[in-house]
Amino acid sequence: MKHFFIKLLAVICTIVLIISSNLSAFASENKTQNVEQLPTSMLNFDTDTTAKFKFELSEVSDNAQLSKGVNIETIKKGLQIAVNSKNEMNSVVSQALTDPYEPNNNSDSAKSISYNQYILANIDTVGDEDWYKIYLNASSDPNQIVAFLLKDIPAGCDYDLYVFDPNFNYAASQNSGNSDERIYIQVQTTGTWYVVVVPYSGYDDNANYKLFVGDAWQNGTTGWRSTNMTFNFTSSNVGTILPYQIFDLSNDTSIPDTAVVQYIQIDSTGVGSWSGQHKYIYSPQTRVRYETYPGLDYVLNIPENTLSVKQQWGISTGIEHLFTPTAKWTPNIYFAYKYIIQ
């Protein structure tokens, strides 16, 4: 029995050495792909046009930049409530469209809102300010960004968005017209934050705006998709990398422009029998080839939160063994991503 196990161990070691030898032929390939193997359109691809969404964190300070010449002290008057103004706000102005958050014209009457939920409300008079409050925790994690979004501003109106921290330092978004207002903040101070919607010009008491406070980074996927590609395996191309084909997501409107790759999977769908398959995907953004290990669907060594999903991807493959006269690989692909909510 002892001799049997010794012989078995020797056989296993021999198999491992053979496999390692075969794998090394692929593993030693240069990750910066040989340009002769890439389609011409990828060689001419301008990496500067790759969707690289960059968002700026808003400054929260006692003198944050304002673009419209609005006096911040005018907005801050909502923090200083006189007795008579409190009494006035106890009577709700009749509105064409009911606003469940009124009265909320200052910090004392600010209405609590929930994290990661949209609310609908409206501006009902020319001097109306809508104040909201929400408790936020400070975080040192650069991926923990809070988005403050004001969307669906009525046509013909120009509303602006202001955010005050617990010390009443502030940040502002003051886009022109009814363009969406966006503020992204890495929260530095734990406590009650105030969010204020202010009409710069015009109002519509019969049309709601939409307000959101929540996680700036959201998760999404493309789901499994057919690449509509066919790679043919024959005895003559075993052990080689086949010519690249392009999987183009650069203009896919179903994917957010801000989407960055978390991970990629490529399956082994096809006809025929083979083994030891390496699958390759090339990014013109980084000019680097990434690959799967034989037997795995997951693409390895994808840089975290770096690669834009919306680009042209080059896909190729190579196999170590072919067990049928010919075979073909018709890959499906899956992108998991995160994106900045807008």
In short:
The protein is mainly β and 342 residues long.
Can you lay out the helices and strands and say which pair or pack?
Layout: H1 2-27, H2 40-43, H3 72-76, H4 83-89, E1 111-112, E2 117-121, E3 130-136, E4 146-151, E5 158-164, E6 170-173, E7 181-185, E8 191-201, E9 209-215, E10 217-221, E11 225-226, E12 231-233, E13 245-248, E14 260-266, E15 270-271, E16 274-275, E17 278-283, E18 288-291, E19 312-318, E20 321-322, E21 327-329, E22 332-340
Parallel strand pairs: 1-3
Antiparallel strand pairs: 2-9, 3-8, 4-7, 4-9, 5-6, 5-8, 10-22, 11-22, 12-21, 13-19, 14-22, 15-21, 16-20, 17-18, 17-19
In this structure, how is the largest beta sheet organized? Answer: 5 strands, mixed
Major sheet: order of its strands? 1-3-8-5-6
Q: Find the count of extended strands (DSSP E, 2+ residues).
A: 22
Mean pLDDT over all positions: 84
Radius of gyration: 29 Å
CATH architecture of the largest domain: Sandwich
- Name the shape in a single word: elongated
What share of residues are in beta strands? 25-35%
CATH class of the largest domain: Mainly Beta
Order of helices and strands: HHHHEEEEEEEEEEEEEEEEEEEEEE
Through-space gap between termini: 69 Å
Give the structural class.
mainly beta
Q: Which residues form runs of ≥5 with pLDDT under 50?
A: 1-30, 81-94
User: What is the CATH fold-level name of the largest domain?
Assistant: Jelly Rolls
Give me the number of helical elements: 4
The domain tally reads: 3
The helix content is 10-25%
